[in-house]
Design goal:
Length: about 70
C-alpha cells in the first residue's frame, strides 16, 4: 500500500506542476505573438493544449489510485 500512497502524492504533485507549466506556455504564446512570432506562438499554444489534455489523464490516474 505504501507505493500506491506514494504514487497518489506524486500524481497530485505532477498534476500541479503540469498546470503551472501549461500557464507558462500560454503566457509565452501571448508574448511571442506580440513579437510577431506566430510560428512560436502556435507551438506554445499547442503545448498548452496538450498539457491540459494531460490534466485529464492525471485526474483519471488519481481517481484509480484513490479507489485502490
Amino acid at each position: 500500500m505504501k507505493d500506491l500512497e506514494k504514487l497518489e502524492k506524486l500524481l497530485h504533485h505532477w498534476r500541479t506542476h503540469n498546470d503551472e507549466h501549461a500557464e507558462v506556455y500560454r503566457e509565452w504564446a501571448g508574448k511571442t505573438s506580440s513579437l510577431g512570432r506566430e510560428d512560436l506562438s502556435t507551438i506554445l499554444s499547442t503545448l498548452y493544449s496538450e498539457a491540459k489534455k494531460l490534466d485529464r489523464l492525471f485526474k483519471e490516474a488519481i481517481g484509480k489510485v484513490a479507489n485502490r
